[in-house]
Design goal:
Layout lengths: L2 H17 L18 H22 L4 E4 L3 E2 L6 E5 L7 E6 L5 E7 L2 E4 H4 L10 E7 L2 E2 L4 E7 L4 E7 L6 E8 L2 E2 L5 H7 L10 E8 L1 E7 L2 E7 L5 H12 L6 E2 L2 E5 L5 E6 L27 E4 L12 E4 L2 H4 L8 E7 L1 H8 L3 E3 L4 E2 L4 E9 L29
Antiparallel strand pairs: 1-3, 2-13, 3-6, 4-5, 4-7, 7-8, 7-9, 9-13, 10-11, 11-12, 14-15, 14-24, 15-21, 16-24, 17-18, 18-20, 19-20, 19-21, 22-23
């Protein structure tokens, strides 16, 4: 028995001694419990089983998988390293899309595995997919994201007038040769002048472990799952900034619980200056995400120019007020936990309604990355999105 296990055993035995009734005359019984006592025997049995299970877990760790390198060329092997479980009968790799559909699968032997050879469907991927390791038919560990490196199509814009304020803005109306709204006659008339861009070319692949982001605030935590299939570069940008601590000690500088029509709107953060004008020092290209701006969806804030996002993000508070943001802003993930935190932040008292400036800015303490759960065949993780816990602008049940 190890020194730690021995010490833990002494602690348990001592606890038994304190719990046992003893007479004032027999002080020695306090330090020496009766080993024949049924309660003591049961505690010792549970402890031995616990120690034995811990030893078994250490002796037979589960299978694991990691990418051998982050980037690979267009025709180079996409290698991963699989460490098998000693007592496992089989190891399987599954290639899954966002809806959980199995695009390809293969039985493999532990070691260095070329995903391109094992899962041929990878070669024809137009957007990111997930490679999940299964041990004895059970998915285990975080999946790998396999993302084709492809340039987005050209963004098509026009000047438009906001129906609420009357001011003009740059409106995204299409991508490549495809309009966002085929029924819009104005856009159709502009479409004839669109010059077709270069055909999409895959420059290789980026392969990495899928992670979730935990946004820890002074109102609680929010867990974000990413959508690299819809916005791969935006996801990678956010992950990089979070990993390097860019968001730490920041806050939600803009809180708009409802828009002018009283519909749930957004909470916005990611600006280190907390003025609404700060960023990471570079601009991010807008991606044609089709992820709807439903409650809990996280999206990139930007200026009027489409390719002007950087680090500022917002979390949508409801479909009713945010549907008009679809196609105009790049949604790249969704909350899978933390609805009460979101609603608590949305209920923060506002100092300036016109700008959404809170009286006291809700603090972002840290944003850290944690491994995502296993992907299950047939399961679309977006079905686990959170729902509002309180009406728009009202404090959540556990809100501050």
């Amino acid at each position: 028995m190890s020194r730690n296990a021995h010490a833990a055993l002494l602690t348990i035995v001592a606890g038994c001694a304190i719990a046992m009734p003893v007479s004032a005359q027999d002080q020695s019984a306090r330090a020496r419990p009766d080993a024949s006592d049924a309660a003591v025997q049961e505690r010792l049995r549970r402890y031995r089983n616990s120690v034995d299970q811990q030893e078994r877990d250490r002796a037979t760790p589960p299978a694991t998988m990691r990418a051998a390198r982050l980037y690979t060329g267009p025709t180079a092997p996409i290698e991963v390293v699989v460490r098998g479980a000693p007592n496992s009968e089989s190891h399987t790799l599954l290639l899954l899309d966002a809806q959980g559909e199995v695009l390809s699968l293969a039985r493999i032997e532990p070691g260095r595995v070329d995903l391109r050879a094992a899962l041929p469907a990878i070669a024809s991927l137009a957007q990111a997919a997930w490679v999940q390791l299964a041990q004895d038919e059970t998915p285990i560990g975080a999946p790998l994201v396999v993302q084709p490196l492809r340039e987005p199509p050209p963004v098509r814009t026009m000047r438009a007038t906001r129906p609420t304020g009357g001011d003009s803005y740059t409106k995204v109306v299409g991508w490549g040769t495809d309009p966002l709204d085929p029924a819009d006659e104005t856009v159709q008339s502009l479409r004839a002048a669109w010059i077709e861009g270069d055909p999409p070319i895959s420059s290789g692949f980026r392969t990495y472990t899928e992670m979730d982001a935990i946004i820890r605030t002074d109102h609680g935590e929010v867990r974000i799952a990413f959508s690299p299939d819809e916005a791969p570069s935006t996801v990678w940008n956010f992950r990089t900034l979070a990993r390097e601590g860019f968001f730490d000690a920041g806050g939600f500088h803009r809180v708009v619980p409802v828009d002018r029509e009283g519909r749930p709107f957004v909470i916005q953060g990611g600006d280190p200056t907390q003025t609404g004008n700060g960023g990471p020092g570079y601009a991010l290209a807008l991606e044609p995400s089709r992820l709807p701006h439903d409650y809990g969806v996280i999206s990139m804030a930007r200026a009027d120019e489409p390719h002007s996002a950087g680090s500022q993000f917002f979390i949508a508070l409801g479909r009713e007020g945010c549907a008009r943001l679809d196609g105009q802003y790049c949604a790249f993930g969704y909350a899978v936990d933390g609805n009460r935190t979101i609603d608590s932040i949305a209920a923060t008292p506002i100092a300036d309604v016109s700008s959404g400036r809170p009286e006291a800015i809700p603090k972002i303490l840290t944003i850290r990355l944690v491994e995502a759960p296993s992907r299950m065949p047939g399961i679309d993780r977006r079905q686990s999105r959170v729902a509002a816990s309180a009406p728009a602008g009202k404090s959540a049940p556990t809100g501050r």
